[in-house]
Amino acid sequence: MALRRTYTAVVERNALWQGDFATEPYEAAWASEAIFFVRALADAVGTGGNARVQISADGIRWVDEGTTFDLPRSEDEITFCRVSHFGGWLRIAGTLAPNNRMAVLVSLALKE
Q: Could you tell me which residues come within 8 angstroms of residue 16 by beta carbon, excluding any fewer than 6 positions away?
């Protein structure tokens, strides 16, 4: 039995999200499954919100994949979502309510 290849990439580190946001795109065509982890850092203000997974064939033009998930509501809380059948590129995007903001650490765990 062959060992499955895995890789974890930090796609946002101490990024401040306000209003509309999107993570840096990540090329993951070799992987068959992915998990986004979002951790709220010290600057979480407001009631959280939600994010959606987006996919792309070229890393430039994006479409919603269909998966949505809640964002953390307090400092050090972590939320996540699982994705499969995503093609070449991945990112998460969303909109926080007015006057809400959060500093985040976003990791993308990939598995072949």
A: 43, 101, 102, 103
Is the whole-model pTM more than 0.90? yes
Query: Is 51 in contact with 91 (CB distance < 8 Å)?
Result: no
Distance CA 62, CA 89 (A): 9
Query: Tens digits of per-residue pLDDT, 50-89?
Result: 999 999 999 999 999 999 999 998 889 999 999 998 889 9
CA–CA distance, 53 with 22 (Å, rounded to integer): 10
Query: How many angstroms separate the CA atoms of 55 and 58, rounded?
Result: 9
d(CA 100, CA 86) in angstroms, rounded, equals 30
